[in-house]
Amino acid sequence: QVQLVESGGGLVQAGGSLRLSCAVSGRAVSGYTMGWFRQAPGKEREFVANIRWSGADTSYSDSVKGRFTISRDNAKNTVYLQMNSLKPEEAAVYYCARAKYGVVRPRLEEDYDYWGQGTQVTVSS
User: Fold this and answer.
1) Residue 19 burial (C-beta neighbours within 10 Å; 0-12, 13-18, 19+)
2) pLDDT value at position 55?
3) What is the pLDDT of residue 1?
4) What is the pLDDT of residues 13-70, one digit of tens each?
């Protein structure tokens, strides 16, 4: 069984930064694309970023491109999301997820089979 545990969420002022971590246990993350999603109250969960197993290929939603950076450390079975210049509208629960093996460029929820419990990010204006 695969378990994903996010951490690093909290309260930050608009324009500030946070670094989220996702620790994976049960099975190694190498070989799998990992992703981050977020869900604000009353809204659907949306794709934020993903990273191929090698770490060389990343993808971002247009809304976070240039401000967020996804990275991974396969030796530590950990994925990170560095978030800079945060906006109040980006307050949400942020989820880490592991993509189904073989899915190319996974951006949809159904492309992922394991999810963390989420970590709350609050951005004050």
Assistant:
1) middle
2) 81
3) 84
4) 999 999 999 999 887 677 899 999 999 999 999 999 999 988 889 999 999 999 999 9
| DSSP H or E run through 20 | strand 18-25
Selection from 46, 22, 51 nearest residue 35 by Cα: 51
> Residue 34 has which token pair?
């990992």
Residue 99, both tokens: 């993509």
DSSP result, 98-112:
EEPTT-SS--SGGGE
Coil, helix or strand at residue 33: coil
Could you tell me the two tokens for 24? 């994976």
* Short-list 76, 93, 109, 70, CA closest to 7: 93
Give the list of residues 6+ apart from residue 23 with CB closer than 8 angstroms, or none. Answer: 4, 5, 7, 76, 77, 78
- Cα angle, residue 62 at apex, residues 61 and 68 outer, rounded to 5°: 65
Query: Is it the case that residue 120 has pLDDT exceeding 80?
Result: yes
Query: Percent of the chain at pLDDT above 70?
Result: 99
CA distances for 93 relative to 31, 54, 88, angstroms: 26, 26, 13
